[in-house]
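Friendly challenge for the regulars: who can give me the structure tokens for this chain first? No prize, just bragging rights.
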Amino acid sequence: MRKNKIGNDAAKIAPMYALLSALSDDLSLPLLQIKNSVEALQQVSFARAAARLQAEKINLSADNGLQLIEAYKLVLKAGEMAHEEFEPVAIGAVLQEVAHQLTPYAKKYDTDLLVDVQHRLTPVLAHQPSLSAALQVLSASMIRAQAAQVQQKRYKLLLGAHRSADYAISTGVFSSIHGLSDKTLRSARGLVGKARQPLPAIPAGAASGVLIADMLCSAMWQPLRAAAHGGLHGLATAVPISKQLQFV
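First reply, four minutes later:
Bragging rights claimed.
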């Protein structure tokens, strides 16, 4: 019995350590950007405006790394989520807040953030910290991936939500990124910790955000899946409508 228990515990822990390995790789990019920015400030005599711009880039890179870490902490605690922690959440308000928080980061990548929510959506039942964190790290990853994959002057990222079947709301992040499908997501889940780039469509340094968002969504209700919204393709999750409260 003890051996079986140890084996079961190891099986549960292994994916977490695998994700931690992938996460450490992805965190190296923002930390390297911080290092390079600091070195630039030390070696060159900047005007005040240029120094302020450089400081802003440092903060954005640091914030991105910290968001990944905080989201990963929520993944580790996902098994401890109590039903009482799920509450009615206005998905439109969550998307607006995520877009607001990521606007400076999106500007760094010449990206315009748009929020499109179907009119008069019923609140969803969700663990709000996990839902917000999932959408935030997913959006940040998609911002970076789109800028790396498609060369253009301006980019658009859409945070959207609309009614779907089975009394649920579909919400996610949509862009012009190619190569994201249910098949690639299934493959990526099996490659966590085994491949440097489990998602070929997502450049190195951005995949962990997608995988962490997928784990958080899975812990709440459903994993990410390929979806479309507003003429764009992306990744979304289905969240059940709350029966506790309806906003009008």
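The first strand starts at residue 87 and ends at 89. The CA atoms of residues 103 and 113 lie 7 Å apart. Your move, everyone else.
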